[in-house]
Design goal:
The chain contains 10 helices and 12 strands. Helices cover 41% and strands 21% of the residues. Strand 1 and strand 2 form a beta hairpin. It has 307 residues and is an alpha/beta fold.
């Protein structure tokens, strides 16, 4: 049996996750020389180059490195689970937990998750990432995230497992003085003549326009922004309407203090749900299951029907 240690695996995975030997050493709280020596010994033991050192000391995995990293992550996760099994007797959770979330859903889900983990499980090392749906799914598949939060219609990979968090309802974001603001719900047919302000984070616009066109409707995309806050401010000034799944508290206003309202879309072709994604083939530590339970509770507490 080749003499490969868990510490070498830990250092190697840290270098991949943080992009360089130096950054990986900082994450592991050891010197860069310690990590470099461990990786050199690991490559000699395996008999293959695992890393390619690129410009600015960036480290990229070779094909052999990608294969080794996938197995190393599984082994490290299994060791974590063995530790969790011992901790079950005292009902504590510990260890790293990396959570990624799409930008539009993060204000709803991440603050409650952070508070719950910080108060209940202080030994859990929680890290957060806000990113696009594509990046979150890629990081889950390569083991750099434990949980990804996005909408079910954004899921494209088949090697990820979906855990339902909450059903979501598409809403129109309208100026506070819009005639439609007095209605309990609005139809897209009533909105089609107005300019729409779209979220410029793929695939949001593409998915919505596909559904709108399937209804035989067309809309004019007048403005685009990657910032939900900017979209709210544009709408508040009467420059168009928005379409959103994440609905804030009814007292929210624009950045400038102008009134906006959120009204459900009547058409039933926009059903969607918020899901927590995990890698289907990878073992899930107990802290991952606990975090998903917290996300479901947070979803219930932030249901717009209960504001």
């Amino acid at each position: 049996m080749k003499d490969v240690t868990l510490r070498q695996m830990q250092y190697f995975v840290a270098v991949l996750d943080h992009g360089s030997v130096g950054a990986g050493a900082v994450a592991c709280h050891v010197s860069q020389a310690t990590v470099s020596a461990a990786l050199s010994q690991l490559e000699r033991t395996i008999g293959a180059d695992l890393l390619v050192r690129g410009p600015a000391r960036r480290a990229q995995p070779t094909q052999a490195g990608l294969v080794f990293a996938a197995r190393a992550r599984d082994i490290l996760a299994a060791v974590d689970d063995a530790t969790d099994a011992v901790d079950e007797a005292r009902e504590s959770l510990r260890g790293p937990l990396a959570v990624g979330c799409i930008h539009t859903a993060s204000p709803r889900f991440l603050p409650g998750l952070v508070e719950a983990v910080t108060l209940a499980w202080p030994e859990v090392e929680l890290t957060l990432l806000e990113a696009t749906p594509w990046e979150i799914q890629e990081r889950l598949a390569t083991g750099r995230l434990d949980i990804g939060i996005l909408y079910a219609r954004q899921v494209r990979r088949t090697d990820l497992e979906q855990h339902h968090i909450a059903n979501v309802e598409l809403h129109a974001l309208l100026p506070g003085d819009s005639p439609l603001a007095a209605e309990p719900a609005v139809s897209l047919r009533d909105l089609a003549a107005l300019p729409v302000i779209m979220l410029d984070i793929p695939p949001t616009q593409e998915l919505l326009l596909e559904r709108i066109h399937a209804m035989g409707l067309d809309v004019t995309v007048r403005w685009r922004s990657s910032s939900p806050e900017t979209i709210r401010s544009l709408v508040a000034r009467g420059l168009g309407f928005g379409l959103v799944n994440a609905v804030p508290h009814r007292d929210v206003r624009s950045f400038e203090g102008l009134d906006v309202v959120y009204r459900p879309i009547r058409e039933q072709v926009f059903e969607n749900s918020a899901v927590a994604l995990t890698a289907a083939a990878r073992h899930r530590p107990r802290r991952v299951h606990a975090a998903i339970d917290v996300l479901r509770r947070v979803a219930a507490e932030t249901d717009p029907r209960g504001w």
